[in-house]
Amino acid sequence: MQSLASQNYNRSRFILCVLATFLVLSSLLLSAAELALADSVISTIEVGENPTDIGFNPINSSFYIVDTGLAITNGGISIIDAKNNKFFTDINIPGPSNVAFNPSNNNMYITNGSTVVVINAKDNQVIKTISMRVNATTPNIVLPNAIAYNPKNGDMYLPGNLLHGAGVRNSCARNVSITCVVSVIDSKSNTIVDNIPIGKQGEPGATSSGLIAYNPNNGNMYVGNYRDRSISVINSTNQVVTTIPLSGSPSAIAYNPKNGNMYVAGGASNVVSIIDSKSNKIIKYIPEVGIFPDAIAYNPKNGNMYVAGGASKSLFVIDSERNNLTSIPLGGGPDAIQNAIAYNPKNGNMYITLGFDNVVKIIDSKSNKVVQTLPVRQGAFKIALNPISNDIYVTNALNNTVSVIR
Hints:
Layout: H1 4-37, E1 41-46, E2 51-57, E3 62-67, E4 76-81, E5 86-91, E6 98-102, E7 107-112, E8 115-119, E9 126-131, E10 141-144, E11 148-150, E12 155-163, E13 180-186, E14 191-198, E15 208-215, E16 220-225, E17 230-234, E18 240-245, E19 252-256, E20 261-265, E21 272-275, E22 282-286, E23 295-299, E24 304-308, E25 314-319, E26 325-329, E27 338-344, E28 349-354, E29 359-363, E30 370-375, E31 380-385, E32 392-396, E33 401-405
Antiparallel strand pairs: 1-33, 2-3, 3-4, 4-5, 6-7, 7-8, 8-9, 10-12, 11-12, 12-13, 13-14, 15-16, 16-17, 17-18, 19-20, 20-21, 21-22, 23-24, 24-25, 25-26, 27-28, 28-29, 29-30, 31-32, 32-33
């Protein structure tokens, strides 16, 4: 018969064994749960040559991919049916560069050199090609390098560089009265109704940065001027209400709905400038934000701004209340460059492309740490959300494909 001490010892050993088994099983179950929640590439879709920009049309649940090609005479638009993640068709549009959806008329707008092509969502037919000539009596042509929708007046805004006559290279100014402009396309008539001069007038070195963003807090459009290091603010009646000087050339811009302000990355200056929406003045400069920061996105789950740190191998987080800066190490190879960043409302995480590493880094919003490094294809470039399925789409510029992440 066992002694009382021996019985207590065996009982304690049994309890420890049960506890150890429970902990192991819990760890395995947790790992399985984490694995089940992990993202994966569910599809890789072949598209045209050198895919870069990407835009979603919720009317036909399709993605429109800008295939830039190898020369200005090449390229086109690839269309992906997002319901089954399959290539649907392509449209021959030489030299496309930017794409945007217009919810006023449900059409897609494609910039391609000196014209803008309008595509109907019903049958994906080109319904109009809009010439970017300033007026009928001059050879001056606007070469748009961005396009954005203004929900206050329903029009499309295109910042661009002015080409003065045949054979003159792309620049906003050549000792003339008009420098950079923002062209405005009326959504009803699909015609240019205004060309708004922006930046320093008559400045020979002026160029448009191709940055434009809408601020719903005051109904204004904010447009970047690259060489003269400024932001032009345009109201819904197409008047420049002010021009805001920056510490560096603007490289990215985004709106923060939590505090109503605009955040502008200053390119080579590595400074983020915060513009107050009421006064349209800079209320804070945040220095040492990476090495040439080139993308900004807002996270509504934690109210923070996320800034891609360019070649710094770090992602930067700015809180909306105090505008304090913290960094998230991303790692990567010697040539790892952050190209784009997007928010996923399904899990509250941020997704960022690292082009030469051919991966997407996934950042947890609670811990602000990298929780997954997901391989995609060569040249991971732009990134876009499907708001219907919450899938993430990545253009792989060097592989002629689009990766779908779920």
